[in-house]
Amino acid sequence: MSSDYLQFPGWDPVAISLGPLAVHWYGLMYLVGAGFAYWWGNRQADRDPNWSRENWQDLLFWGFIALIVGGRVGYALFYQFPTVVSDPLYLFRFAEGGMSFHGGLIGAITAIVIYAIKTNRSILSVGDFVAPLVPVGLGAGRIGNFINGELWGRVSDVPWAMVFPTGGPLPRHPSQLYQAFAEGLVLFLILWAFSRKPRPVGAVGGLFLVGYGTARMITELFREPDAHLGMLGVFTMGQWLSIPMIIAGAILMTLAYQGRFSASTPPPAKKTKQAQPKKKRGS
């Protein structure tokens, strides 16, 4: 193995310091993802007669909270279960870090289901609206992982392999960047292109599940398995959790194109400009 390998840049994990307040890069990446979803979702709502900006912003607020809580709980249960058994309060120690996409997905789906029921919408149609907005946040989160020098890849001698501060002396795949590219940019472009034309209810959400699960299965081949878990048979934990996503997404798309789903309940009508002043929000 050549000694001419790249060294990790060694960024300060704190992006912004304002007195006692420190904003870390990983947290900032979550805000980038939420900001993009807010902006792009507003654009989609403007073009969709069944949505208003207010509808989308309400869903985004509660969905973001559910994603964070689900991500933390999922990480604790999927990756640190023995710790939770011995110390249940570990679930609530968010400051110690640790997030799971699959847990966050469960949290987000829960928020979508509750929102759809409360607003008399089809659950699958809400999922179709949200799905294209998710990948940019995923990609931003992986860039945050890279800046933090965590979740690095397996040992490699490819020319772009690099040594990470906590990854030992050997160069490794920068697998966080692979994931940012596949789960973020590529998946976003696929979903954006697919959703530009009218699709059967459930098809866009199904494609998201298949696309993310496939991207995760591939990129996990380059990512170092979690040290305390290792390989679980022939797959990593991330791959095992992605297999049900791919299966569920494929079934969902098949049923969608068979016409099994419909927006069975009419969504709320958009508010007109004349109606807006009549509805006030408290401060």
TrEMBL record:
Keywords: Cell membrane, Lipoprotein, Membrane, Transferase, Transmembrane, Transmembrane helix. It is an enzyme of class 2 (transferase). Residues 263-283 are annotated as: Disordered. Pfam families: LGT. A 1,2-diacyl-sn-glycero-3-phospho-(1'-sn-glycerol) binds at residue 142. Residues 270-283 have a biased composition (Basic residues). Pathway: Protein modification; lipoprotein biosynthesis (diacylglyceryl transfer). It is found in: Cell membrane. It is a multi-pass membrane protein. It comes from the Bacteria. One of its GO terms (biological process) is lipoprotein biosynthetic process. One of its GO terms (cellular component) is plasma membrane. Its main location: membrane. InterPro entries: Lgt. The chain crosses the membrane at residues 20-39, 59-79, 99-117, 129-147, 177-194, 201-219, 239-257. Catalyzes the transfer of the diacylglyceryl group from phosphatidylglycerol to the sulfhydryl group of the N-terminal cysteine of a prolipoprotein, the first step in the formation of mature lipoproteins. Belongs to the Lgt family. PANTHER family: PHOSPHATIDYLGLYCEROL--PROLIPOPROTEIN DIACYLGLYCERYL TRANSFERASE, PROLIPOPROTEIN DIACYLGLYCERYL TRANSFERASE. This is Phosphatidylglycerol--prolipoprotein diacylglyceryl transferase.
